[in-house]
Amino acid sequence: MSKKLIIFDFFGVMSCEVAPTWLRRHFDEETAIRVKQDIVSRGDSGDLSEEGIYKELGALANVSPDTIQKDWMEIVKINDSLVDFIKSIKNDYKVALLSNATSTFLTRILNKYNYLYELFDFIVISSDVKMVKPDAEIFNFLINKVGVRAEESLMIDDNIANIEGAKAAGIDGILYKNMEEFVKEFQDKTC
Predict the structure, then answer these.
(1) Partners of 125 in the beta sheet?
(2) What would the mean pLDDT of 127-154 be, rounded to a whole number?
(3) Is residue 36 located within the same domain as residue 123?
(4) Number of domains composing the chain
(5) pLDDT (tens digit per residue) in 65-122
């Protein structure tokens, strides 16, 4: 069956990772993973505000919340090659952004790089809908919102757990590693 909806993750796909990058600068690897699970994931689910994340991280790392917010925005680097790719497929597919994030943080990024809004027909941010990847419910929410069937959709994410979550919802996936591999796999799955 041909694809009608292409779904892109934000952090690790449209942009470099932000929270994990910052956490690795301030904590050893094991602590960084635990802090992401204990604090950042609560923001993704909408249970902790962006300010709350910075406050809790600041207390652990002895860094002011304002500095953390500034640091996080400076880490963001948009994948310009992927932006160009999405522009090239816009006429052939519906395009969605599906991201685990606090809405305030991701919206600030989208506002800063406002040309990104033009790329997406639909934007779903986990904290807004109180659902997170890799749970199948967030994928089902998105495809129902768009009005397509799962098998007509394709998820692009850098996290294998999220690809598995999409597949559990009946959505095919591509594990994003780099543009070259992605483009080849995209062509294989959409031709």
Answers:
(1) 99
(2) 98
(3) no
(4) 2
(5) 999 999 999 999 999 999 999 999 999 999 999 999 999 999 999 999 999 999 999 9
Position 58, amino acid: G
Query: With b meaning 16 or more CB within 10 Å and e meaning fewer, what string describes 45-75?
Result: bbebbbeebbebbbeebebebeebbebbeeb
What's at 164, amino acid-wise? E
Share of the chain above pLDDT 70, in %: 99
CA separation for the pair 53, 66 (Å, rounded):
11
Q: What is the CATH number of the domain that holds 86?
A: 3.40.50.1000
Mean pLDDT of the chain: 97
Question: Between the CA of residue 102 and those of 49, 78, 131, 172, what are the distances in Å?
Answer: 7, 18, 12, 26
